[in-house]
Amino acid sequence: xxxEVAIENLYKTFSKYPFKSTMEGCPCCVSDTDKSxxxxxxxxxxxxxxxxxxxxxxxxxWGDVDDFKxxxxxxxxxxxxxxxxVDTFVILRKLxxxxxxxxxxxxxxxxxxxxxxxxxxxxxxNDQFDDxxxxxxxxxxxxxxxxxxxxxxxxxxxxFINYVNFIRENYxxxxxxxxxxEELTVKDVGTLKTWINEQRELLETGFFKAEETDKEFSNVIxxxxxxxxxxx
Length: 232
Prior knowledge:
Structural class: mainly alpha
Radius of gyration: 20 Å
Order of helices and strands: HHHHHHHHHHHH
Largest sheet: none
Shape: elongated
Number of strands: 0
């Protein structure tokens, strides 16, 4: 499922939760201006400056779970397309706060499909590996093998570049307290390391291809292969 289809599925699934002009907010944290800004446009027309304050305060000091479900499709759409200025971990942890795995089956399935599609889209299009997105989706879905299956490693795709850079930046520290991915379980650290090493042939192939077209990148791949040999 593409991220575009997954987003449309969110809108369809959560359309039964209506807009409420009387959504309660903590008077110390949410001003009348904040409320009027959020209510100034239709859901799909809301931009970062309209919805980011709500996204940050959703449920903790502004509105309840049903309100969050109303705005969830637009919040997630802006997050997945990198148009929302609120940190990814803040947005995704709202799901835990809302106890999302106990929502109606169609709702948590729609969110699950979206999270997988978001990850697949981001690892293929983002010009750098997003540790924050990876670890937050990993914690929510608890399915590392699925995330790895959705990682496109074709040589001419951004996912391959992200794979090389991911190894260089993370492999040595995986499983340690200084790792940016320290929240991985011991089992999943092993799974991730095994998966990385199983792709060595792709690295070698990528090295020879890059030697012909991108000498700098071929050197990066060579250094990555050398690091794997020393640390595996």
